[in-house]
Amino acid sequence: MTSSSIGVSATEAARAASAAVRSRQILDAAARLMERRGSESVSMQALAEEAGVSVGLIYRYFGGKEQVLLAVIVDVLRAFAEDVPAAMEAAGGDPIRRLSAAFEAYCRVIDRYRHAAVLTYRESNALSAEGRTEIKRLEIETSEPLREAVRQGVDAGLLIADDPDLVAYNLLLLAHSWALKHWYFERTMTLDQYIAAQRTLALKAVLPPQGLRTYADLIDH
């Protein structure tokens, strides 16, 4: 590799890093602003002021306000797609520990993208039909690791659940509740305490008596 090509590569890397930072600024600002005002009430100028960038820069990265909203929601789903499988892999092969790791990862992503998670519920109707279809597709894809962990637990005789999908979606709703009712939960518990309490409730509902003893370290006493 020549010195000139090295210089070009370094320049491209710097530009990509700068673009990632700017994009993150815009998405974080959009999530905050749209949660406060609703997407319909947010102008591109207001978004630019919240993000500390120019309107032109926003249009450089996104085609318009709907594209910004879609990107905010997709950003959360992409974090699920990255963090949840990684946490499950780190937990090893035991289905219950994989399930526990998946639930914790979902909760931590929700906490990190709390404003954006709320937008998923409040503002997805503002998207086009194509945008809503894309969000639904990604939601199903990103929840599959959790559903698979529940199914594996049932197949191994470690969980008692007539409907594994329902168990998985109940866990997803518990994770999302940290964002939806954060004003309430934050009064009395931290994120770690919330994860431990909700995991305990969920596991006590689906573990047989022997399982409660085997996985006692996952249950908050």
TrEMBL record:
Location of the DNA-binding region in this protein: 43-62
Protein name as annotated: TetR family transcriptional regulator
InterPro entries to which the protein is assigned, alphabetical: Cro/C1-type_HTH, DNA-bd_HTH_TetR-type_CS, Homeodomain-like_sf, HTH-type_TetR-like_transc_reg, HTH_TetR, KstR2_TetR_C, Tet_transcr_reg_TetR-rel_C_sf
Domain HTH tetR-type span(s) in chain numbering: 20-80
Keywords, alphabetical: DNA-binding, Transcription, Transcription regulation
Domain of life: Bacteria
Transmembrane segments: none
Keyword Transcription: yes
